[in-house]
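Review this:
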Amino acid sequence: MSIRTWFADQLRTDWASIPELAGVRVIATERALDTIAEPTALIRLKRMEREPKAPLSTRRVGLLLTLISPYIDLDRAGDQVEELIEAAMTYLGPRFPHDAAEVVGYADRLAADIPVTIIAAETAAPTEEN
């Protein structure tokens, strides 16, 4: 299982019990999305490097979590993206190292990018610890 797929599965499971995130469609893909009819979390691989503080078999994997609003209306989209950022960063905070959210565009939609770091051993599942 890829790190992207593992992280997507983790979000789907955990977010199901968080009201602000329960309705978010989570997708781990490098391809562009055709339709965005619901709030969507897109997970893409950005980098992979050796973890300097751990054995050589441990990797630091950089993922980009993009939260996309389905709304065309910028005011509605802005409100939704702000709510998604707050809920996602609250979730990520104690679990996964992440950088600041940046509001961006995705196709013709408003979105936010949150860089997330996963520490993973080559032969084991990623951990939620730093």
